[in-house]
Amino acid sequence: MSRAELADAICAWLWDTTEIKYELDGHYIAKLERGAVRWPGAAYRSGLRHVLDVAADNELGFFPPSGIAVAEPEPTPPSMVGHDDDLIHASDESIALLSFAEESNVGELTVEQLQADIERIAQSYLRTPTRPLFAKSRAIRDRAFALLAGNQSPRQSRDLYSAAGFAITMLAWMSVDLGRPDIAESHTRTAWACAEAADHDVLRGWIRATQHTAAFWQEDFVRAAAYAEDGLRYSAGTSRLFLASAASVDNARAGQPDKARDMLDLAQQLSVRQADSEPGGLLLCTPERAEGLWADTYLAFGQPEHTSNHADHSVALFEAAPYVLRNPGSERMARLQQAKARLLLGQLDGAIEAVEPVLDLPLEYRVRPLIHRLAEVAALTSPYAHTPKARMLRARIAEFIQLPARRKEDQT
């Protein structure tokens, strides 16, 4: 007799005996065989004893939990059931729903694969072309929500909401880099709902970091600071270091130097560790990434010497790190901080040397914030306009900035 046939025989006997329709199936029989369910309900045990012609539960390998004798009503003929007894009916209905409650459309490997895919995207960002990673993040988001429409345990649901939230957060960050920070904010609202459903502070912190970034590149520094400061309430992971550092830049650019210095002091005193659930790469703040932000704060203060010191240290830390662990986007931004500090300090050759690795970037890595920062470098070359080196630098920056725009026009 197959598992399905055994289940059908038990359900038929239970119907004849109780006039209650049970939903026992072959999947549940398989769980009994492998010991996943060690003490099925009274109705199922009675049906198994009858169909398999055994006298006692222990002959089937069933024993009450912790060895305690459990008194449960056995299925009885309809004349004795008492159909007006709602307690008995409710109990039998719960037994019938047991197999559904124990089933899940999400296995441990499914969640593990979603998390691995998120980590791979976060760590590959700005190391491989952006648009394919955008498409992969979108696919993870859709996969997570499709699974959430099925049946799983509360813990598995939280894991799926977490995966969806991280995927949407990356979609938002990429939207900023692709030139649409306004669209990014729409993504973050849904990501926040996922973080709430998952009750995930690490995710909350990085969503606030992304919202800061979207507001920052719309030059709404007050709102950017509000997002960053609110994110500090969620102290898990390295997002706290990013948020305090970013808030110092936001407040400095918003004309709030005292708050900017408070945030800078906080960031420089923090000792943080990567959380287990942080994907890394894009969604990880290392000391070198933070120091690049500190350089930007000092630039807003009008202190190019401090800008140069922090940018130099940031770049040195990036160069000392293993290639696979370097955040290329943040490293490029730190090099442009170097270039701006050099220009303000009268060091044209040093600025050219700092910006050279950025100008060699392939087209697919020329994201909008990087282009914006390069335009700022070009503006600072004005005092050197009479020199051939400065004119050549401006020409190369102009070509770097214009090429993506020309390519976009060609594709439309």
Structural account:
With 412 residues, this protein is mainly α. It folds into three domains: 58 residues, no CATH class; 168 residues, Tetratricopeptide repeat domain (Serine Threonine Protein Phosphatase 5, Tetratricopeptide repeat, Alpha Horseshoe); 115 residues, Alpha Horseshoe (Serine Threonine Protein Phosphatase 5, Tetratricopeptide repeat), CATH 1.25.40. Helix content is 69%, strand content 0%. Helix 7 runs antiparallel to helix 8. The longest helix has 24 residues. It starts with a helix and ends with a helix.
Present the secondary structure layout.
Blueprint: H1 3-18, H2 26-34, H3 42-52, H4 78-81, H5 86-96, H6 98-102, H7 108-124, H8 130-148, H9 154-177, H10 181-198, H11 201-216, H12 221-231, H13 239-253, H14 257-269, H15 287-300, H16 304-320, H17 328-344, H18 348-359, H19 368-379, H20 388-411
Summarize the structure in short.
This is XRE family transcriptional regulator. With 412 residues, the protein is mainly α.
Shape: elongated
Could you give a short account of the major beta sheet? none
Q: What is the CATH C-level name of the largest domain?
A: Mainly Alpha
Q: Which class of secondary structure composition applies to the elements?
A: mainly alpha
Q: What is the N-to-C succession of helices and strands?
A: HHHHHHHHHHHHHHHHHHHH
Protein name: XRE family transcriptional regulator
Organism: Kribbella jiaozuonensis
Keyword list:
3 domains, mainly alpha, 412 residues
